């Protein structure tokens, strides 16, 4: 009986610790939302506060002055993220599966090539020339998708997951008459669902948060993703805030939020990912532990 009480007490202490730890992890996010709903003058005088002195949506109203443009940016980012993640995940899984097959004679050589590109790459100039001069895909969504289709780190990570699949399982499927494509799609991929969710989330983060490719290759306003759009808005606000003098009679500096706009941009940019993450959290957590314990 005493052992059960001690066990229950220990579990209670552990649960309480993780609850407190989780609350502390929520504080930065709470600060971001709170500041985005604060007045710029309150931040200048009172600093950052967990609870706004005056709640206002001025920063959001300023950013949402052109909702059509924002919707276009979201649609571009969602399209690039969904298509890019699906394509990248498929090609990454296919390449990692080949590398993980111990009966494939070129597995070591292919692994070395992938690892080498993880350490050394051609750099920005070759990519720019390839996309602009040879492929001619600038000002298209392909320019936002293609550079991140194969990322060496994701391939090596997926290989570690797929290496845990017993070779005997694949051999038995071959004995039953299954071809390589059927083995991959009907046996390997379902088993690797947690790994696919984990790597897929990493890939989705890269596509969703990217603004660099749009700055390099996109001039068409209808193809600007949300991250680059918000980045340009923030740069414009900061430029005006730094260069307009208070005595300027033509422009009211109070109409250009600075700190509040930064946090509102963070909320608008991260919102969709925060909504999607809980639905794949269980696969993500399970995927992180795949291969951690061998039995």
Automatic annotation (TrEMBL):
Q: What domain of life is recorded for the organism?
A: Bacteria
The answer to whether UniProt assigns keyword Translocase to this entry is no
**How does the record classify its membrane topology?**
Multi-pass membrane protein
Q: What is its main location?
A: membrane
Where does the record say this protein resides? Cell membrane
Report the residue ranges that make up the ABC transmembrane type-1 domain in this protein.
74-280
Instruction: Please give the start and end residues of each transmembrane region.
Output: 12-33, 71-97, 109-129, 141-162, 183-208, 261-280
User: Which Pfam families does the UniProt record give?
Assistant: BPD_transp_1 (PF00528)
Q: InterPro entries given for it?
A: MetI-like, MetI-like_sf
Q: Does the keyword Kinase apply?
A: no
Keyword annotations for this protein, in alphabetical order, are:
Cell membrane, Membrane, Transmembrane, Transmembrane helix, Transport
Q: Which family does it belong to?
A: Belongs to the binding-protein-dependent transport system permease family.
Protein name, UniProt field:
Aldouronate transport system permease protein
Please tell me the species this chain comes from. Paenibacillus aceris
């Amino acid at each position: 009986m005493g052992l059960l009480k001690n066990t229950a007490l220990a579990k209670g202490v552990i649960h309480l610790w993780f609850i407190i730890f989780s609350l502390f992890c929520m504080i930065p996010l709470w600060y971001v939302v709170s500041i985005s709903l604060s007045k710029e003058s309150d931040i200048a005088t009172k600093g950052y506060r967990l609870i706004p002195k005056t709640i206002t949506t001025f920063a959001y109203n300023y950013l949402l002055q052109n909702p059509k443009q924002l919707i276009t940016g979201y649609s571009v980012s969602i399209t690039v993220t969904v298509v890019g993640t699906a394509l990248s995940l498929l090609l990454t899984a296919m390449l990692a599966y080949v590398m993980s097959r111990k009966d494939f004679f070129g597995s070591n050589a292919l692994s070395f090539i992938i690892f080498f590109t993880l350490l050394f790459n051609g750099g920005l100039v070759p990519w720019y020339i390839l996309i602009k001069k040879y492929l001619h895909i600038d000002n298209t969504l392909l320019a936002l998708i293609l550079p991140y289709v194969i990322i060496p780190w994701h391939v090596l990570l997926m290989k570690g997951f797929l290496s845990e699949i017993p070779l005997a399982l694949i051999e038995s499927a071959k004995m039953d008459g299954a071809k390589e494509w059927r083995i991959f799609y009907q046996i390997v991929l379902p088993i690797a669902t947690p790994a696919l969710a984990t790597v897929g989330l990493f890939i989705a983060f890269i596509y969703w948060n990217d603004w660099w490719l749009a700055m390099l290759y996109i001039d068409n306003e209808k193809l600007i993703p949300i991250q680059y759009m918000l980045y340009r808005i923030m740069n414009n606000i900061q430029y005006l805030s730094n260069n307009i003098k208070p005595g300027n009679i033509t422009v009211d500096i109070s109409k250009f939020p600075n700190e509040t706009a930064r946090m509102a941009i963070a909320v608008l940019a991260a919102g969709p990912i925060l909504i999607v993450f809980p639905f794949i959290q269980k696969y993500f957590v399970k995927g992180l532990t795949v291969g951690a314990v061998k039995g």
